[in-house]
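Section 5.1 Outputs to date
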Amino acid sequence: MHPLLKKVIKERFGRLNRLQQDAFREVSSGKSVLIIAPTGSGKTEAAVIPVFNEILENGLKPISVLYIAPLKALNRDLLERLEWWGEKLGITVEVRHGDTSAYRKAKQTKNPPQMLIITPETLGVILTVKSLRKHLVNVKFVIVDEIAELVDNKRGAQLLLGLERLAEIADFRRIGMTATVGNEEEVREWLKADVIVKPNWRKVYRFHVLYPTPTEEDEKLGQELSLSPEIAARLRLLWEIVERHGKALIFTNTRQFAEILAHRLKAWGKPVEVHHGSLSKEARIKAEKGLKEGRIRALICTSSMELGIDIGDVDVVVQYMSPRQVNRLVQRAGRAKHHIGEVSEAYVITSNVEDYLQSLVIAKHALEGRFEAVEPIGGLDVLAHFVVGLLVEYKRLPRERPYEIARRAYVYRDLSWEDYLDTLKVLEDARIIGYDEETDLLYMRRGAFQYYYENLSTIPDEVSWRVFDARSGHIIGRLDERFVMDLEEGMDFVMNGRSWVVLEIDDESKLLKVRESPSIESAIPSWEGEMIPVPFSVAFAVGRLKRELSFDFKNALSLLEGVEFSEEELKRAFEEIKSEPFSTDRDIFVESTPKTLVIHADFGNRANEALGRIVHSLLILRYGRVFSVRVQAHAIVFKTPFQLNPDEVKRYLYQEPESVEFIVARALRDSHAYRWRMLNVAKRFGALRGDAKIRRVERLFEGTVIERETLNELYHDKVDVKKAELVLEMLKSGPLRVKTVLKREPSTLARLNMTVGGEFLLSGTLERDEVLELFKNRLLDHEVVLVCTNCGWHSKTKVARLRSIRERKCPRCGSKMLAVAHPIDAEEFLPVLEKVRHGKPLERKEERVYGKLLKAADLVDSYGFDAVLALASYGTGPDTAARILSQYREDALLVALMERERQFIRTRRFWVDKKSEDDKEANTDQS
């Protein structure tokens, strides 16, 4: 090891731990390595220390290392951590993504760092930038962080193909990092690593699963906070845990829930902040620092805090309601007491009997190390983008060359020549590429550049849908497209505190026609779109636990050995359902009431989705389109206009297993989810332009490779055909049976599954004014830069301090042309203004930067503080702000800005801006 590195290691933490020593040995011997270890094991240093050593020992040229991390929030944290090492070792470390300023990107091109931190999408950009490619040939290491976040989605497939493109110009080793997964060997093969490095110790967890009973104290607290005693009991217990342990992370499963829970605790006077991916970077940093520095006691968060962001030592983790997956619980619990040898303590506070039993099973599986496998996915639409990317790089290629390169990637190892040719044909028909039969060469056509840069991200662009009340004839609001995707005609949802039933879904006009519904048992639109799916293995084990509880309570206790829970709470939970219909691992229960039919089935969300589609399609064949269906982890719920005979539905479940895929495919083709997926798949193929609106897209691509890819994506993400076939096989061969019952009123579990997200819906719902107040306070606390567009004076300030903006003048030149800007926009503007003041001509990119802040200054001059609020909100630039400000005032303005923010976050969740400076500079360099 290089002497300087030895010295810095000693300064940082004395000596390497065993994991870091093993990783150092394997990487230094020339191998590609997959590091699998819990949070707090020192994975990052295990990956980078041997790389830094080779840079020092061999004087590697920049760019010698690409560090690929899936989330920008992680990049920011990594940059601070890795810059420390870089400064000590004399190694340059920088970050590059859609947020990076043009000025910094230009500096990186002229003087590249030795280590560049990027997102997967940024790899697709820099491979096509001529001025950077000459530095990419020096890459000797690619480090991929948080691999589990990439393996099971198309971002991962795109990354693998990007690495194969890089391998055409550079000879590099791969180092991957991930928390524990259920299919370690497959993930190793996915990365093309030679060996797996794991710690020689086992992480110890202590899981407490709680099902609190309300007390008199909770009755009083409930009255004080306008909550039911049951919810008050959960909040009281949650805060007792925080008080007992110290600093806490409190995880929820959706962003909306995080906001509401934080609001409830703040209303109770508790020092907490909220943290999720829909908040601005500044708000997230403030929350992280608040916990790290002890100003707050707890952070209410979602999956944004799973990935190792540095917030200092955490004493305890609380999961509010079931974590739904073993991997999630372990990843989250690992944030507490994460140093080697410490016991990570986590509490799960549950809200109903199903939630409780599910959490007990997940905790037990976690203690046994029964982790879920992450399922790799490829995709012919991603392959199409890869082919065009190669042609952007090389202009012309032999037809078989992209095929040969793609098959080197794990998820394309079985790619058939026929599928490849079908993919090429779509690109040729779209006039994106051409094929010269005489020379056997593929070549770019005029549309190639636009297609390539519009599809750098596999995350679909989303727009908001207008919701039209058919009775009043008015637009009542907007919904995110991802939420609309899961709606069907006849389904209920909640919006603005009221229930609505869907009458018609107009794809072309992006219009949802609705009328008010008396039902309060409805889905709630949330920023996350849908809950984490519960896997088959967990749901099936919950079924077994219910069966054991009904026959042998002591034996049931043995199934949960090692989990901390109260026997009294378990008895009370089972008392709630034992005299009513419930499913087990050996029983499906069909319960029919006058307006609802519930199939109780413990097979998880994706398998139940397939079973639900089968029954729904057969009901439609007999009665027509008069039913709606909603699928849960432990039930399939049908809304019915009359009471169905449960024995008829029982017969529908006894299908031949071989018929599942055929019936499900037919049912899916008639769904809005299918049309939405197909539209996005077609755009990724280049068969449709990004702004295309097609009324019957499913007819346009019927029988094509686009249809096949749409179904494959749905089977991977939403519908588990294989597990549904297994269920039907079990019914056929005997281990599983179907029971039926007719009832006047739904059972406890039926009511539970009829109500989605009912925790805060039925009592103590947030009022509209409270939601707007939350949003407004966040805007007021936001940091912006006030810039004089006349002389360049600038000052960082908080939005709340700009209420008297109309009276403000530049303290340097007296001008009233003051713009409110994001710090990066201000950084880009100042050198451009300097050129303008000296009469120098501007490039097109600089003209856009200059015009953007002039327009912002005009808006501030015209609309005053309203413009400041608009420009400070997340994702609202001057053009969008101008449109919104011309239409809305006061509360209506806040509502419009909040909806815009949600829409913006939807389209940029992992965040590559299709019109980012990265893309523009790539186009410039190509030309």
